[in-house]
Specification:
With 69 residues, the protein is mostly helical. It has a domain at 4-50. It contains 2 helices and 2 strands. Strands 1-2 form a two-stranded antiparallel ribbon. A hairpin with a 4-residue loop joins strand 1 and strand 2. The longest helix is centred in the middle third of the chain and has 18 residues, at 33-50. It comes from Roseiconus lacunae.
C-alpha cells in the first residue's frame, strides 16, 4: 500500500498533468482531483488508526467479592 507521502506526490504530479489525452488508437483519463484528495485523506486516517491496535480498548467491569451474593 502506498504511504501518504507517496499519495501526496502522485496528487501533485496529476494536478500538473493534463486531465485526459488521446491519440488515434488510445485514450486515457484520470480521476478527478477531488477523488484523489479523498483517497489521500482516507489513507492518512488508516495509517493513523493502524498504530492504535485492537487490543487497546478500555473495558469497565464491576468487581464483586466472592461472599457478597
Amino acid at each position: 500500500m502506498s504511504t501518504p507521502e507517496e499519495l501526496n506526490e502522485a496528487i501533485e504530479a496529476n494536478a500538473t498533468a493534463p486531465a485526459s489525452a488521446s491519440n488515434s488508437t488510445e485514450s486515457a483519463s484520470q480521476h478527478s482531483l477531488k477523488d484523489q484528495i479523498a483517497v489521500a485523506n482516507r489513507a492518512e486516517r488508516r495509517a493513523l488508526n493502524a498504530g492504535r491496535g485492537k487490543g487497546r480498548t478500555v473495558r469497565f467491569s464491576k468487581v464483586i467479592p466472592p461472599g457478597a451474593m
